[in-house]
Amino acid sequence: MIVLNKEMAFISFYLAEKEYFLPDNLREALSLIHYLIKEKHKEKSLAIHIVNEKYKKKKNIDYTKEFLWKKYNARLAHIKNAKDKYKEWSLKLREASVGIRKLCECGCGQEVTNKKNRFIRGHNINMRSKEEKEFWTKNMLDKRGKENKVIKVDFNSST
Questions:
Q1: What are the backbone dihedrals phi and psi of residue 157, each rounded to the nearest 5 degrees, phi first?
Q2: pTM of the predicted model, to two decimals?
Q3: How many domains does the chain have?
Q4: For 14, which DSSP code?
Q5: Are residues 80 and 132 in the same domain?
Q6: Which side of the chain, N or C, has fewer Cβ within a 10 Å radius?
């Protein structure tokens, strides 16, 4: 069983999103480079050399050392960015749960500037039922004086 904390799950998801189009063999090679550096305490250049030679022999794939170096550095940058985004995300959630920061109740996740309001201006429309939306649409058109013009609004396309 793999035990992950929230930060590791967030980082894994972020990294999977960024490396989605990379081949599985390349992602395995990058993980092996990381293993050699962190667990076996090899130098970065030596770890990249070992992995490149291993993939040449076993899988007939020559990634080149420069390519592996570039992709490994990109992975490290993605991990750093994921850690930064996780800190921002967790801080927002903690502030919202304590009540320091009030979020819009429509579910958009944006902050409400006036603490007395429940919604950001215009976001309460998302919470109306289909009947309420039709009523307010008809009411608005009546006030404009558009009696002869019929407007068909499809409320099923948006929620």
A1: -75, -30
A2: 0.61
A3: 2
A4: H
A5: no
A6: N
